[in-house]
Every structure is written in C-alpha cells, then in structure tokens.
Amino acid sequence: MLSVADNVFYMMVMVIILLVVASITCYTIQVKSPDKNYTELHQRIRSWWVMIGILFAVLLSGNTLSMVFFAFLSFLALKEFLSIVPMRLTDRRVIFWAYLSIPFQYYWVAIGWYGMFIIFIPVYVFLFLPMRMVLIGDMKGFIRSAGIVHWGTMLTVYSISHIAYLLVLPEKNNQAGIIGPVLFLLFMTEFNDVCQYVWGKILGKHKIIPKVSPNKTWEGFIGGVVTITFCSGFIAPMLTPLTFNQGLMAGMLMSVSGFIGDVVISSVKRDLHIKDSGHLIPGHGGILDRLDSLTYTAPLFFHYLYYVSY
Fold it and tell me: Across-strand partners of 285?
C-alpha cells in the first residue's frame, strides 16, 4: 500500500465531493419532476461511483496492480474495438499477435524501459503484423485489415499505456507523489468532457461538425477549452511538476486533443452505424465510449510533461 501524498488525498476528496453533489442533484431533480425519465442519468452517476472507486483502490494499491489494471483496460478496449469493426476470418490469427503486444508493452512500462516502450508498437508491431498477414496468404482486403488492426492497437494499447508510464517517472513533486500526474490527466480529461457538454447545453447554437456529432457546438468547445485551461493552470502545480504557465499549456493541449479523440471515435461509430461501442458501462456505453478522449490526451500530455520536466 502506498502512502498518499497530501495533494493526491485532497484531489480524491474533491472528486468524491463532486460525486456526492451530482448524486444529490440527480435525486432532487427526480423528486421535482417525477414524470420525467432520469434512468440514464442515474446509471451514469452510479457507474461513475463504481469507476472512481475501482480507480482509487487500484492506484493506492501500488504500481504492480496499477500496471495490471491499465493493461486490462487496453485489453478490453482492443477487444471491443475489434468486435465492432468488420474483420476477415483469416485476421483472427493476426489479432492474436495484437493481443500479445499488450503484456509486452506493459512489461516495458513496468521496468521503465523508455526506449522500448516508445517504439515497440509503432515500429516492431507495425512491421510484424503485415508480415504475419502475408504468411497467411489471404490478400483480399489486405490493406483494410492491416490498417484496422494496427490503428486499433495504437489507440487502445499504445495510447493508454502512456497513462501507466506516468507511474514510473521519477517523482518531482513531493506533494503530488507518483499518482499525482495520473490523477491530473484523468480528471482534466473527464472534466473537459463535462465542461464542453455543459457549456454546449447553456450557450450552444453553432454546430461544429454536425455530420459526426450533432450535439457538439463551437460555444461548448470554446467554453470547455477556456475552463480547462484555467483550471489546469491552478491544479497542475499541485499534482504535477508543471508550473502555472506550463499548466495552462497542458490544459489547452488536453482540452483540444480530448475533443478530437471524442469525435474520432464518434466517426468510427457513425461509419459503423452504431450509437455506442458497447454496453459494458451502464449509462456510458462501452469502454471505448469512456476512453475515447484519453486515447488522444494520454500520449500528448505524457510527452509534453516529459519534454518540459524530465
């Protein structure tokens, strides 16, 4: 069990308070408007309680369990991605190798081998998978299948593994410990989704990409970017080695990239004519519906932090 750094403890308490406020608010509006159906809202909040509880328990249990947890998340996300995209029967033998990349990638993370962590999937897996497909000998749809498997592996394994690598970086802020940067990344990414949704509901008039996501508006996007940028400026020095100004830049980077990650996965679902990527998380959809923004914010925040602080 890890000792909890002061700022990490305060952050966890703040998140729990936010969940309590959300639960009370949901109960209150249900009492005031009993005729309306708030089932999905109840499900979303209950799921947040479960997800936050599991995340906090895992992070506080130490690095080994945390590595296993994030590797399992990558497995679930890759499995879900490959279950919704069209694949050939012969691709099953290639998919096995994509799954096998997960324990290797997280092993490089666990031992802190940065050089291998950073090139294993973009170089070795990228070159190996097409070679395996050639050996199978089914050339019909070769390019499409190679692109799907590799892109899925990059999104769900390579991108998500950057969250885990934050846990093995040298500690540079004693008040944040090694958990601080992970909490910062996860909180700001999810808070960005909430802010863009709320600002869009309050002020949204001008749709930003109606063919992909009809509910996204310029007002919601800009409101979210401004809110997250300033919040990040104040929170980053508490949970990361970043200064106030560096935190502002990190907030802007995560807000914009989180939006892009969201609409990229939305484009996949539009292409497949599905609403959600799965049904694993009640009220939220599938695991990809919850990780979509993180597939972009995790690697970009990690490399920004690594560049300015290490």
Answer: 281
First to last CA, the chain: 26
Among all chains, which residue has been given the structure tokens 């700022």?
A: 7
What's the token pair of residue 258?
């989180």
Q: Using a CB cutoff of 8 Å and minimum separation of 24, what contacts does 219-227 make?
A: 220/196, 221/196, 221/259, 223/195, 223/196, 223/198, 223/199, 224/192, 224/195, 224/196, 224/199, 224/255, 224/259, 225/252, 225/255, 225/256, 225/259, 227/195, 227/199
Which residues in 247-271 are b (16+ Cβ under 10 Å) and which e?
A: bbbbbbbbbbbbbebbbebbebbee
pTM of the predicted protein model:
0.94
Going by pLDDT thresholds of 50, 70 and 90, the confidence category of residue 118 is: very high
The H or E element containing residue 85 is none
What DSSP character marks residue 123? I
Q: At what angle do helices 180-203 and 6-32 cross, to 10 degrees?
A: 30
